[in-house]
Amino acid sequence: MTPSRFLQIHSLHSYTAALLNRDDSGLAKRLTYGGSNRTRISSQCLKRHWRMAEHDPHALQTLGGYVGSFRSRELVTDLVIKPLEGRYPQDILDVLEPEFQKLVYGDKADKGKKSRQTLLLGQPELAWLARRAEELAAGANDAKALQKAVADWRKDANFKAMSENAALPGGLVAALFGRMVTSDPAANIDAPVHVAHAFTVHAEEAEGDYFTAVDDLKKDESDSGADTIQETELTSGLFYGYVVIDLPGLIGNCGGDKEIAAQVVNNLVYLIAEVSPGAKLGSTAPYGRADLMLIEAGDRQPRSLATAYRKAIAPDREQAVAALDGCLAKLDATYETGEARRYLSLAETPLTGPATSGLEKLSLKALADWTASRVKEAPDA
C-alpha cells in the first residue's frame, strides 16, 4: 500500500431534542445550504469538546508524553506573576508584569485584559517564562535597576527562545489544531487537523420549548402562577461531519515522532465517534455515538462528501448512508483517486466501493487500530 498523506474522516451523528451549539441570541447555530436551512455545529465547538474530554478513556490527556497548554488572556498574570506574589516586593512585580505581557501578547498588551488576544501557550513555554521572571526578580536590588535589566533581557526574549529543546512547545492541542500569535508570527503553528462545521443532512427540525419552574414550598393558594417562565429552542438532527488529518504535518508537529502521532490519531478517532458536543447536559442529555464513520487514507487532495446532502434529504439514517455511498461512487468513477477505506456503521444500508479500496465494515476499535497504522506508514514531514 502506498504511504498515505491524508486521512479523511466522514461521520453521521444523530441527536434528539438538544441545543448543541448556540449563537449570540441563544438560538441554535444554522447554515443555509442547497436552499434549505440546516442546524449547524461549529468546528470550534467540536474541537473544544474533543480536547476538553479529560475524563474519557481516550482523552488526549491520557496519552504518554502528553504536554498540556492553556488558552487565555491572563497567562502572564495568573501563571507567571501570581506565583511570585508575597515572595518579592510589589514594586518589583509591577515592573515585571507589563514587560512580560508585551512579550507574550504584543506591544499594547500592558493596557489591560481587553488589550490582549486569547492565546494558547504550552507548558514548556509557560515554564520558561516563569523561570525567567523568577530569575529577574531574584537578581534585582530595586525596581529601578530591574527596569534596566528587563529592558536588556527583552532584546533576546521571544517565542523561539521559549520553545528551545521542547518537542511540543505549544502543547499537544496546538500540535493538532494549530495556533496564531499576532505578536510574533514566527510562533504560529499550522493546524494539521482540519475540521469542518457539521450540519444536518435534512432541513432544520426545531421547536420552541416553553417551560416553567414551580416553587415546591409555595403556600399562597391565590398565587397560581409559575415562579419562573422561560423559553428555549430544541433541535433534532442527523449531522454530517468531516475531518481531514495532514499526516506529515501532524508528525512534524509531534517532533517527528510517528508513535506519538499514531496514538493521537487512534484516540482522536474514538473522540470523534463518541464525544458529543453540546450544552444543557442536565436538561437534554445530548449524548450520541456515530451512526456511521468512514475513514479514507490516500495521497490525493482531500474532498468533502458534503455535496451528497446539497439537496436536503429526509431525516433518515438509511437514506443518508445511501446518499453518501452514491456521492462516493460518482467521485470514484470520475477521479479514480484510489483511497483505502474502512468504516463502522449502525445502518442496514451498506457502503459499497471498488475492491481496490479494501472497504470493510469494522468495530470502532478495529477502525481506530487501522487508522493509527496508516500514520506509522506515512511519509515524514
Automatic annotation (TrEMBL):
Superkingdom classification of source: Bacteria
Protein species of origin: Rhodospirillum rubrum (strain ATCC 11170 / ATH 1.1.1 / DSM 467 / LMG 4362 / NCIMB 8255 / S1)
Name of the protein: CRISPR-associated protein, Cse4 family
